[in-house]
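Re-running N-acetyltransferase to confirm reproducibility after the cluster update. Everything else is unchanged from the original entry.
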Amino acid sequence: MLAPVSPLLVRPELPADIAAVRNVNECAFGRPEEASLVDALRRSGAITLSLVAEQDGHVVGHVLFSPVEIDRDGSREIAQGLAPMAVLPAWHRKGIGSVLIREGLERLRGAGHGAVVVLGHPAYYPRFGFEPAARFGLRWEVPGHDEAFMALELRPGCLGTRPGVVRYRPEFGAV
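Result of re-run:
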């Protein structure tokens, strides 16, 4: 007889999770850069929301949101950037990433944040409501990623359509 599997627990990252979060990101991406990015954002105090997915007492997934700046002709707006999102390879295709993203978006919406951007797979993120960022007049500061650069309004109308350039925190370019 198989032992029962406990339900997936999604919760905020705790200090005791730091090593496990690093492991999840390194294993999921097969390299240390994303894990180092998380560490750098944590050191800078630049994390808006960091959630872990825990299964049977083990961290198996992680999602992080940090502030991004939207420059619209000299005026600055703040949105949230979703990156990274990682699940241990043995736990892929079980819906853990989707649960993390949905929970993160709901928590951000509940906290009053207006919008989220992501540079990600254009066939994956639309299921959460993301649309091409160009629809909102937005482009990423690094050219050539238009199809993969997407945005989601957590508050309808908050992004508008005025042209703007989205800039991620400096930690994204430092790792």
